[in-house]
């Protein structure tokens, strides 16, 4: 019975991992990457869509991004969204595409980005703790109702903590990898 409760939160933990991975992809490192802009939301004629659905994103050089919209009428909207959402990026419309030249990263900017990465780490772990607490509360409730035996309750607690520890470790690895990329 307790295993079903634990199995029920595994997909939620995976969602936390996916969200964290996407969020970290949006942080700038020393090199240009489509992940910097692909999830920026653009308001196009009343519909909100990520840039990745409005055109192709390429990396012409190590410190340059190019966005080629499927429709040129998207250009001003994409440019405005980048200016609003991605601090430090300066998009420029060149012909029928948007070019973004990434400046050299200053030490101050690196520290700022690492601080933001740490915040993502804190948010992810807080969410995982929330799911752990919900599952533990459910296991305790089922024990009080007599549906889970007392010794199984503690096995459930141990299994739950193992799951939480494994996801926390995965998040730590993602965060460390990203910090190393940022530090160059």
Give the strand tally. 6
Strand content: 15-25%
Q: How many distinct domains?
A: 2
Overall mean pLDDT: 88
Helix content: 55-70%
**Low-confidence regions:** none
What best-fitting shape do the alpha-carbon axes yield?
elongated
- How many DSSP helices? 4
Helix/sheet category: alpha+beta
Distance between the termini: 48 Å
Q: According to CATH, what is the topology of the largest domain?
A: Topoisomerase I, Chain A, domain 4
The CATH homologous superfamily name of the largest domain equals Ribosome-recycling factor
The main pleated sheet reads as: 4 strands, antiparallel
CATH architecture of the largest domain, by name, is Orthogonal Bundle
How do the strands of the widest beta sheet line up side by side?
Answer: 3-4-6-5
Protein described:
With 184 residues, the protein is an alpha+beta fold. The chain has two domains: 2-24 and 106-183, Ribosome-recycling factor (Topoisomerase I, Chain A, domain 4, Orthogonal Bundle); 31-101, 2-Layer Sandwich (Gyrase A, domain 2). 58% of the residues lie in helices and 16% in strands. It is built from four helices and six strands, in the order H-E-E-E-E-H-E-E-H-H. It has helices spanning 2-25, 75-85, 107-144, 150-183, and strands at residues 41-44, 47-50, 55-61, 64-69, 91-94, 97-101. The chain has a four-stranded antiparallel β-sheet with strand order 3-4-6-5, with helices on one face. It has a two-stranded antiparallel ribbon with strand order 1-2. Helix 1 (2-25) runs antiparallel to helix 3 (107-144), helix 1 (2-25) packs parallel to helix 4 (150-183) and helix 3 packs antiparallel against helix 4. It is elongated, with a radius of gyration of 22 Å. It starts with a helix and ends with a helix. The model has no long low-confidence stretch (mean pLDDT 88).
């Amino acid at each position: 019975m307790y295993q079903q409760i634990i199995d029920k939160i595994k997909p939620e933990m995976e969602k936390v991992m996916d969200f964290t991975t996407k969020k970290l992809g949006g942080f700038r490192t020393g090199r240009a990457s489509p992940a910097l802009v692909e999830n920026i939301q653009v308001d196009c004629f009343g519909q909100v869509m990520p840039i990745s659905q409005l055109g192709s994103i390429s990396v012409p050089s190590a410190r340059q991004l190019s966005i080629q919209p499927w429709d040129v009428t998207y250009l001003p909207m994409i440019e405005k969204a980048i200016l609003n959402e991605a601090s430090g990026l300066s998009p420029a419309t060149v012909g029928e595409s948007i070019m973004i030249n990434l400046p050299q990263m200053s030490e101050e900017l690196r520290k700022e980005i690492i601080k933001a990465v740490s915040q993502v780490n804190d948010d992810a772990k807080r969410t995982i703790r929330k799911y752990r607490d919900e599952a533990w509360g459910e296991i305790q409730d089922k024990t009080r109702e007599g549906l889970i035996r007392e010794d199984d309750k503690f096995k459930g607690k141990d299994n739950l903590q193992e799951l939480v520890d494994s996801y926390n470790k995965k998040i730590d690895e993602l965060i460390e990898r990203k910090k190393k990329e940022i530090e160059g």
